[in-house]
Structure formats: structure tokens, C-alpha cells
Amino acid sequence: MSDQKAKRVLVTGSSQGIGKAIAAELCKAGYTVIVHGSRSMEKVRSVMNEIGAHEAVVADLSDMDEVRGLYEKTGDIDCLILNASVQYKETWDCISEEAMDKQITVNVKSTLTLIQLYAPAMKKNGFGRIITIGSVNQYRQHPELVLYSATKCAVMSLVKNIAKQLAPYGVTVNNVAPGAIATPRNADVYNDDEKRQAVEAVIPMGRFGTPEDCTGTVLMLCSDEGSYITGTDIIIDGGMRL
User: Fold this and answer.
1) 90, β-bridge pairs
2) What is the pLDDT of residues 82-129, one digit of tens each?
3) At the topology level of CATH, where does 8-182+214-235 sit?
4) For this structure, is 148 an active site residue?
């Protein structure tokens, strides 16, 4: 892939899991990477040093003032990877108002707001990459992820609408939808043999994915090789949605 040393990238939610793996791969590829976490600067700086990133920022994406402050901290960038999200496992009839508000704010409102903040410079420069990290639950019904799934479907709708409007300016907007990935979020399932085997039974490839399974696609979409791909959803799930 082409040399990307001049490109600045922000990866939200990159202190662990998929976000951390994406940030690490972008560092290896020569991007100038900004690592983000929600609260602990100590943790974010530790990850920054571990993977060779260039900047560390903290912002709570459930607080819209902090969402806007994130842009002020980083300034303009070339690539925006919107990985951070919140997930509560609750049946539809027990979802609290607090859980509704937080998932909608972090997963949808902050996504749109950050695109609004970062896209103008991308349009002006004639280059930009915006990638949202979705979920296989856009396609599968999970009885405890009703609202979470709805937020991911909402983001995919944003992607398709915004992609069409930004395409004339050389800015691409895409979604990457991972399946069951072995991350801290899924640790309670992955580390329980019975639960893990039940999930793996519905994955045609027969295993959980790794965070690194998601990085190659994001790297391609950020690069010049991904310049003609926009408004699409790339599913990385081992066939789980089938």
C-alpha cells in the first residue's frame, strides 16, 4: 500500500480490543495515530507507548461537550475511525431510560457530531476517510441487544447518506461490521467454555474472531487503494450472519 506517513488518524475507543488493534496496525503502516480513551489518560498513554502511536486523548463520548472538545484537542485529521461504542445486554422490555440515552448518545449522536466536526477539513483538502465500526447484530436478532443493534443500524443509515454527499470531495465513508470477536467486551462469553461453544456453533468458521481479523479491512479502506469504495458495509464475522 502507498506511503501514508503524512496522514493523521484518530481511532476512538482505541485503548483496548478492536480499536487498539486497528490503531496498532495503522502505526505499523506509517500513519500518525491518535489513541483515544473515555476516562483514563494513564491507560491511553500506556497504549500509545506500547503501539508506537503519536498522541493520546481522553474524552467521554456520552458527554456532548466532551465530544466537541475532542475535536478541539486533535484539530483536523485525515482519517476518522469511529470505533467507540456502548453496549448493554437487556431484554427489550427491561431497557432503562438511562441505558437508552447512553447507547444512543455514544453510538449515534457522537458519531454524527464527530463526522460533522472533522469532515469540513477533509472536504477542503480533497481527501478523507471515515470508517464506522458496526456489528453483525445489524443483521442478526439478539434478544438482549435490541437497542444496541438498532443504534448500529442507525449508524449504517448515516454512512450511506453521508457517503453519497461527501463522495464528490474525495471523502469516503464506510462501515465495518465485526462478528463475535475475542475482546474484553466479550470476555464473559469467550472465557466460559459452554457459552463460547454455543456461540461458535453458529459461526460457520467455528471460532471467535480476533481483533486483528478486523485490521486489514480498515487499513485498506484508509489507503489510496480504498479510494473507490464508499457507502458500503464490510462484514467480518466468519459467516455468522448467514
Assistant:
1) 145
2) 999 999 999 999 999 999 999 999 999 999 999 999 999 999 999 999
3) Rossmann fold (3.40.50)
4) yes
**DSSP for 122-174?**
HHHHT-EEEEEE--GGGTS--TTBHHHHHHHHHHHHHHHHHHHHHGGGTEEEE
Question: Exactly one of 148, 169, 190, 228 is catalytic; which is it?
Answer: 148
- Residue 29, classed as helix, strand or coil, is coil
As a whole-number percent, the residues of the chain with pLDDT over 70 amount to 98
Averaged over 162-169, what is the pLDDT? Answer: 98
The residue extents of the domains of the chain are 8-182+214-235
What are the residues facing 236 on neighbouring strands?
A: 178
pTM: 0.95
Residue 168 burial (CB < 10 Å; 0-12/13-18/19+)?
A: exposed
> What is the bridge-based pairing of β-strands 79-82 and 8-11?
parallel
